[in-house]
Write a structure and sequence with these properties.
The complex is a heterodimer.
Chain A: H1 3-28, E1 49-53, H2 57-60, E2 62-64, E3 70-73, E4 77-78, E5 83-94, E6 101-106, E7 113-115, E8 120-128, E9 139-140, E10 151-153, E11 158-167, E12 176-186
Antiparallel strand pairs in A: 1-5, 2-3, 5-11, 6-10, 6-12, 7-12, 8-9, 8-11
Chain B: H1 2-25, E1 29-41, E2 46-50, E3 55-58, E4 64-69, E5 77-85, E6 91-101, E7 106-115, E8 117-125, E9 128-131, E10 137-139, E11 144-154, E12 160-169, E13 175-185
Parallel strand pairs in B: 4-13
Antiparallel strand pairs in B: 2-5, 3-4, 5-11, 6-10, 6-12, 7-8, 7-11, 8-9, 12-13
The chains are: A alpha+beta, B mainly beta.
């Protein structure tokens, strides 16, 4: 076998490898088709359903967010082996004068409360209308998915939110928990 | 073969159509948050203490109690419990029956607060609870109020139970703490 034959053989092998690698590359490549979705003028509008202050907002340390879409409480407390009831920590108000909204207040997931949760006997959250009739089910904080259920909040109506807190007997005054609830408003 | 490929294409097209149309049926959701940060446990600022009449048992944290009296022994028990305000905040207090058992044997009984003035909170007459919730009564700062049972008469022997809330209201709000007091009347 002379040198030319050897070179030709190697060239053929290289060519084969090149072709195989090109074939693999082509097979691995994706075909892209680009489509576009364009939204014109996404506007800011005031929320029709907002949190508002209630009779017990001050004692509960309530702060309503700028747009009424957030409320926090920083001074709720309870005595061990006794139930503390905040009957009206905040209201949920429908500012629309003609349309009802579907709302749902819920304890969404396990990560929505933290701290000394084993020392809590219970925390219940209830929603009441203006004639003190409970709307929907009781929310049990700590139970994933516990919710009022979907409720129709009539036009120009405010419902109050009640919290009931009970620490277990013997709980020390150094204990605390943090809770997050989610209000889902459908429509708008 | 061609027909097989065409069939698959039809399935893919249906899938794409469903995927595209689904968002059109979706809802518009607005999500708001309510956050309660630092719900704390604190030492009770109002506590129950034993009385000098009947038999009383104070439970953990002094926030619930059981009182035992006998209608056949005496018509008046003054006092069966003390309510002690340990802080400089004032409160409004009242009693409310939330359950009862074998009350019809009691011809009369009145449970009241007192300290100078008297406030009838729960009244039983002719075997019926005629007043199940009392009016609000002042519990001033660092003050003590007393719970008494008066006019206690039973028509038959037996044991009756009154399960009562002591509501301790923060003035000018609708925030209150609830203590449970059980009255056992033989």
């Amino acid at each position: 076998m002379n040198a030319r034959t050897i070179l030709r053989s190697k060239a053929l092998k290289l060519l084969s490898l090149l072709l195989i690698s090109m074939a693999i590359a082509a097979a691995s490549a994706s075909v892209y088709n680009y489509m576009y979705m364009q939204s014109l003028e996404i506007s800011v509008e005031a929320a029709d359903v907002r949190f508002v202050t209630g009779t017990d907002s001050t004692v509960a340390g309530a702060t309503i967010g700028t747009n009424g879409t957030y409320v926090s409480f920083n001074s709720m407390a309870g005595w061990p082996n006794s139930t503390r009831v905040y009957q009206d920590v905040a209201g949920i108000q429908n500012f629309n004068s003609t349309s009802a909204y579907t709302i749902e207040l819920k304890f969404d997931q396990a990560g929505d409360w933290s701290g000394d949760t084993p020392d809590i006997d219970y925390i219940y959250v209830k929603v009441f209308n203006s004639t003190d009739i409970q709307q929907g089910a009781t929310i049990t904080v700590g139970t994933t998915g516990s919710s009022t259920g979907t409720l129709s909040l009539p036009a120009s109506t405010t419902w109050r939110v009640q919290w009931e807190i009970k620490w277990k007997a013997g709980t020390l005054s150094t204990k605390n928990v943090t809770v997050k609830l989610t209000l889902i408003v459908t429509g708008g | 073969m061609q027909g097989h490929i065409r069939g698959r294409l039809v399935i893919v097209n249906i899938f794409l159509l469903v995927a595209l149309l689904s968002p059109a049926n979706g809802s518009v959701l607005n999500v708001s948050y309510s956050l309660a940060s630092l719900i704390s446990a604190e030492m009770p600022k109002v506590v129950l203490q034993s009385g000098t009449a009947g038999t009383s048992f104070i439970y953990a944290n002094s926030t619930s109690a059981k009182v035992s009296v006998s209608a056949s022994e005496a018509p008046t028990y003054d006092y069966v419990l003390k309510i002690n305000n340990t802080v400089t905040n004032a409160w409004k207090i009242n009693l409310k029956v939330y359950n009862s058992f074998n009350i019809d044997r009691l011809s009369n009984a009145t449970i009241c607060f007192h300290d100078g003035t008297t406030s009838d909170q729960i009244i039983i007459s002719g075997g019926v609870i005629t007043q199940s919730e009392g009016p609000q009564y002042d519990l001033p700062e660092n003050a003590t109020r007393y719970i008494s049972i008066v006019n206690l008469y039973a028509s038959t022997s037996g044991t009756s139970y009154l399960y009562v809330y002591l509501k301790i209201l923060v003035p000018s709000t609708s925030t209150y703490s609830v203590f449970i007091i059980t009255f056992e009347i033989t």
